[in-house]
Amino acid sequence: MAKPLTRADGPQSVPALLHRNASEFANAPAYREKEYGIWQSWTWSQTRDEVEALALGFLELGLDEGDFVAVIGRNRPYLYWAMIAAEMAGAVPVPLYQDANAEEMAYVMGHCGARIAVVGDQEQVDKIIEVQAQLPDFERMIYLDPRGLRKYDHSKLDQYSAVQELGRANREKHIAELEARQAKLNYDSTGVMLYTSGTTGKPKGVVLSNRNVIETAKSSSEFDNLKRTDEILAYLPMAWVGDFIFSVGQALWTGFCTNCPESAETMHVDLREIGPTYYFAPPRVFETQLTSVMIRMEDASRFKKWLFDKFMAHARKVGPAILDGKKVSAWDRAKYALGELMIYGPLKNTLGFSRVRVGYTAGEAIGPEIFDFYRSLGINLKQLYGQTEATVFITAQPDGEVRSDTVGVTCPGVELKIADNGEVFYRSPGVFVEYYKNPESTADTKDAEGWVATGDAGFIEEGSGHLRIIDRAKDVGQMADGRLFAPKYVENKLKFFPNVLEAVVFGNKRSECTAFINIDLTAVGNWAERNNIGYASYQELARHPQVMDTIQSHVEEVNRSVAEDEMLSGCQVHRFVVLHKELDADDGELTRTRKVRRKIIEEKYADIITALYDGSKQVSTETEVTYEDGRKGSIKATLEIRDAAVQPTSHQMAAE
């Protein structure tokens, strides 16, 4: 195959990177997948052959340059190959969230005009069939897993392997055209289009060029000294920019191996088997893992729990300092080494983190206690700050400069500035090309000089150069008395507690703050079982008096912590309610990346918010819900409203 276009100092497209890898380290592992309990592996040379066969198959099916190819399903090598093959054929890959409902898929596919969809299984096929009448440009679907599809109409439905065989059989017919299309690809060609999560409205198609992908992958890999021998586990949604840059961009740039778990249910087992050296997870994943650890310790013997608590206290004291190479006494190092043998090492092995050399969390702020817990174990967990429009990386924490209260310094090639209203702006080689078919939003977000508005409020620390994010700029407001209102700051503190899954704080333009809280059914359910407390539903457990007492103690502990921060002390929660249902993306309350849609929640639960502020002790409500099969229903409940003790602030004392 003809060599794709490259610059003097490297390839100019994602397919060109693949060609380089297949030539320079042909027999090194590129992708692995666990299927039926057995790990399958493909080298870089084999991967190029698989991708080329699919790209040739696309051409035989009539894929034109500039077409859009939707890619939907769980993390599988075949779907990553589909994205690379689409670009190789001159088209644009558009990954979608696999748990999106049919209407959400219809919006994205209709907006970009996707002609072909490559999907994982029957579930995705059914969703697209349900809405295909709304998709005038849509023509064919290619599926991976044939189970359940034998009796479907296959006139516009093809099996993935059959399309590859079609490509191989017609290689001579299409190879010259495929090479010609690939030769046209350059730094300014579109590498991928990723849709935003749609926190405030309809998702927008973010166009990322090969320049964005390759330059970001190059600089971020060099920043953390990523190597070809590194391993990652690809388990986060393929439609999310983080997964794309880690599992495609950085993987192709460095040549490291991307490992795909068998399923969401086996992910933690597969994580332990792979033992990745490079790992990323949003805060929710780390919170869930910590919750499971704490649940197990509650069930442990008294001696084991004492031992765990004793050594973890020491780890919190000296672990981060040892990790950062700072001075620690010989006695403390010896005690920590004993803890590594007895507690930290086995725990890291259980979590699958024994070999993690570089770990990141991002997406939203992580609770400092959670962050410090992992670092105290000797796990090099760091924070980064980014967004889809930046091809992920804006700031990151260098080794030795890791703190829980910042998101690091500017990544290589990135510039930062803070506007007068506190909003963070950046520009870099990773800045997106445009929002597809949306010049107005593009102009609102990116100015003529390439500066992008993040929508987040923050400031750069003098001396250290570290960026601190306060909250979403649109969510930062003022209390009625003029004090700062930053809900995310309080919500993250609440979510540190294993019993709290989600929290939403209200208070903008009001005299005091209130909160909605979701309990974590796993953690609270485990407590109920240990104490022989029976319950039949989430709702019944959530309103149990002892659960309410526990949540109240958490709120009041957070209030004491918030009161210590003079700038944000006005954000203490005066009243709260434990919701009767979990906030859910299917109900429109969260995005597919689990971000809170505040406006929708405020509208949907207006009656509960009113009761929080009018002094009511309880409120009766009825809420529409969406079941897994798409049917609608409703839940009725009478919720108890609790008052929480708050601490006096310097502002109040001065007023007195």
From TrEMBL:
GO terms for cellular component: membrane. Pfam families: AMP-binding, AMP-binding_C_3. This is Long-chain acyl-CoA synthetase. It comes from the Bacteria. Residues 19-436 form the AMP-dependent synthetase/ligase domain. Keywords: Fatty acid metabolism, Ligase, Lipid metabolism. It comes from Sulfitobacter delicatus. GO terms for molecular function: long-chain fatty acid-CoA ligase activity.
